[in-house]
């Protein structure tokens, strides 16, 4: 190093580029300057402190000799001059002879100088008018003095921070406490005392351990503090229950951290958070999860939980019914593609399944009749795909499979039998009627009368075939188109009066929208039943409405529907050879009304009143 300079490491020093000393007292500066003068015997001493706001080493205290010889000392940035060099390096810098340095701007009248870092706080500058004035003993003594000064400055900073901290805590709105080195209360905030039902002096006088509800939790908090003091963690969160003054439990979470060490054991600061609402929410969530798990496991229908990954439904969980029906163990199929497990090889079926999957992945609820491979072969299911959000950004859904194989098979058989029966019955009855017509012309007397009975019976069977077709058409599912109920009732009543000659009155109020054109079929059947089975009856059609429903009633003053016939229709008696309806009219009324979402009631007090209750379309 030019100018005969040498360095000496100082244990208390550090990198000054980011240091922060803050303002110091005038008495403290004077004490450190006089100590250098008295202990080391050098009259030219200067203390420079680092100012974090300006980033400079400011001259703050100096001996009288320096003040007299150089009243205005320069201010250095931390990367400028010899003071800045020593501060940044964190090492003592000794200049044995300033006259040998051409770039020296801090020499003044000095021939030799020593620059000693004061930790993160600044630099102690010593000067002498003699060259080579600082021997190893001088430097060692100066470094001891600088290290003590740095410690003193650190202590002042800590004390200042503690005062600031205490002021903040005292006036804070958080529930906080401070424990001393013996884990006794040193400070508690008013919000904490109020929440526990104490005044602050009374709470401070209590042992913190006496506020912990469970002995195991006391041991846990002691262990947490030991870990903090042992340097195993910077902060620790502990969940426990505190006891209020009334003896009630307060569920809390306590964040524990250390206070600055003053040479003994660390004090501890704790921030307390009330977990009452959180605990209630967790308990509700746990109850909901338990109920869901019970429902999930107890459903008789197979259920699978899937997550869509790259457009493919990956199995995440299944219920026991899924394992039984499809023959897979839950653990063995986790993360597998659901379609690979259940779909038949038919490409059309697979394409349809992929389309359903895309709709479910987009968040749509999916309903479809599907065919899937089970442990017993292929079966038909009503599939319902229900998407849900788990909050993790994934695409999740439940798939529910209701086995409708037996129902589908029955429907196919009934459909075949119905069509064959109706077709054959109509064709055969056409032949019978043709033969009967021929016989009537060929016979006279009683045989001809018998032919008339044959014709009436055949015609009745043809009408029953047509009625069966109306039943099928009426109960077939489809979109419901709202109609004006009052207008429909008035039209059917007028139409039937004209065709039958019967006296049909109407009592229609408050037009309402409900049902659809199937209502005409039901009303015709009720009017025909009232007129056909009674002699010169008086028939009334009425419409009433409220906020949710529409009631359509057909009343007559006749003998009423026979008990055994009504019992079959309302379900009080089985359909057997001995108890069966004489026709399909009442069945048609019942099924038609049910297909529109309504109900049928029968009242036989002084005649018969049949009431259809239907939902309003605008409700």
Summarize the structure in words.
It contains 18 helices and 24 strands. With 619 residues, it is an alpha+beta fold.
Low-confidence stretches: 9-26, 577-581
Strand content: 25-35%
Overall strand count: 24
Largest sheet entry: 7 strands, antiparallel
- Rg value: 50 Å
Shape: elongated
User: Mean of residue pLDDT?
Assistant: 80
Question: Key terms for this structure?
Answer:
24 strands; 7-stranded antiparallel sheet; 43% helix; 619 residues; 5-stranded antiparallel sheet; alpha+beta
Tell me the layout of helices and strands.
Layout: E1 5-9, H1 26-40, E2 44-51, E3 56-62, H2 64-69, E4 76-77, H3 81-89, E5 91-95, E6 112-117, E7 122-128, H4 136-171, E8 175-179, E9 185-188, H5 190-196, H6 200-205, H7 215-229, E10 235-243, E11 249-258, E12 268-274, H8 276-298, E13 303-309, E14 312-318, H9 320-326, H10 330-333, H11 338-342, H12 347-361, E15 366-374, E16 377-388, E17 395-403, H13 405-442, H14 446-475, E18 483-484, H15 485-500, E19 503-508, E20 513-514, H16 518-532, E21 538-545, E22 549-556, H17 563-570, H18 585-595, E23 599-603, E24 608-615
Parallel strand pairs: 19-21
Antiparallel strand pairs: 1-5, 2-3, 2-7, 3-4, 5-6, 6-7, 8-9, 8-12, 10-11, 11-12, 13-14, 13-17, 15-16, 16-17, 18-20, 21-22, 22-24, 23-24
């Amino acid at each position: 190093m030019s100018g005969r300079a040498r360095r000496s490491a100082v244990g208390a020093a550090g990198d000054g580029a980011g240091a922060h000393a803050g303002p110091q007292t005038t008495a403290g500066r004077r004490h450190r300057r006089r100590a250098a003068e008295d202990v080391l015997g050098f009259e030219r001493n200067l203390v420079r402190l680092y100012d974090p706001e300006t980033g400079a080493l400011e001259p703050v205290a100096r001996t009288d000799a320096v003040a007299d010889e150089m009243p205005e000392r320069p201010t250095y940035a931390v990367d400028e001059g010899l003071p800045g060099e020593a501060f940044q390096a964190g090492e003592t810098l000794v200049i044995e002879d300033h006259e040998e340095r051409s770039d020296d701007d801090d020499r003044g009248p000095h021939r030799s100088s020593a620059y000693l870092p004061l930790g993160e706080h600044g630099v102690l500058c010593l000067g002498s008018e003699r060259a080579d004035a600082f021997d190893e003993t001088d430097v060692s003594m100066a470094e001891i003095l600088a290290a003590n000064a740095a410690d003193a400055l650190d202590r002042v900073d800590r004390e200042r921070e503690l005062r600031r901290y205490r002021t903040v805590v005292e006036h804070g709105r958080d529930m906080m406490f401070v424990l001393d080195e013996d884990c006794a209360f040193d400070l508690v905030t008013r919000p904490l005392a109020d929440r526990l039902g104490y005044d602050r002096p009374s709470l401070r006088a209590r042992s913190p351990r006496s506020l912990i509800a469970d002995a195991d939790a006391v041991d846990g908090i002691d262990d947490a503090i030991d870990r903090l003091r042992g340097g195993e963690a910077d902060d620790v969160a502990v969940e426990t229950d505190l006891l209020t003054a009334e003896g009630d439990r307060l569920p809390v979470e306590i964040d524990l951290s250390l206070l600055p060490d003053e040479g003994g054991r660390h004090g501890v600061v704790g921030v307390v958070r009330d977990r009452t609402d959180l605990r209630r929410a967790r308990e509700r969530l746990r109850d909901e999860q338990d109920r869901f798990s019970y429902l999930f496991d107890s459903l008789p229908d197979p259920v699978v939980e899937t997550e869509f990954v790259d457009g493919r439904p990956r199995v995440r969980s299944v219920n026991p019914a899924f394992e039984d029906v499809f023959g897979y163990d839950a653990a063995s199929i986790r993360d597998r593609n659901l379609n690979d497990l259940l779909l038949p090889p038919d490409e059309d079926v697979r394409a349809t399944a992929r389309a359903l999957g895309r709709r479910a992945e987009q968040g749509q609820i999916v309903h479809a009749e599907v065919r899937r491979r089970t442990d017993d072969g292929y079966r038909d299911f009503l599939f319902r795909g229900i998407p849900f959000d788990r909050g993790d950004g994934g695409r999740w859904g439940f798939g529910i499979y209701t086995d409708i194989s037996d129902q589908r098979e029955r429907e196919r058989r009934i459909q075949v039998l119905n069509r064959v029966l109706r077709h054959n019955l109509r064709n055969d009855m056409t032949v019978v009627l043709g033969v009967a017509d021929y016989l009537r012309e060929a016979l006279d007397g009683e045989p001809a009368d018998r032919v008339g009975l044959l014709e009436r019976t055949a015609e009745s069977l043809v009408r029953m075939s047509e009625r069966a077709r109306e039943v099928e058409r009426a109960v077939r599912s489809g979109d419901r188109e709202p109609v004006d109920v009052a207008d429909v009732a008035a039209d059917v009543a007028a139409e039937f009066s004209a065709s039958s000659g019967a006296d049909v009155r109407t009592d229609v109020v408050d037009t309402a929208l409900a049902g659809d054109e199937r209502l005409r079929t039901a009303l015709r059947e009720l009017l025909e039943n009232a007129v056909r089975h009674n002699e010169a009856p008086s028939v009334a059609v009425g419409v009433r409405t409220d906020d949710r429903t529409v009631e359509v009633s057909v009343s007559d003053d006749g003998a009423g529907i026979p008990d055994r016939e009504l019992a079959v229709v309302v379900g009080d008696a089985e359909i057997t050879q001995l108890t069966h309806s004489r026709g399909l009219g009442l069945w048609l009324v019942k099924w038609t009304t049910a297909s529109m979402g309504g109900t049928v009631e029968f009242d036989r007090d002084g005649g018969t009143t049949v009431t259809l209750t239907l939902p309003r379309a605008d409700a």
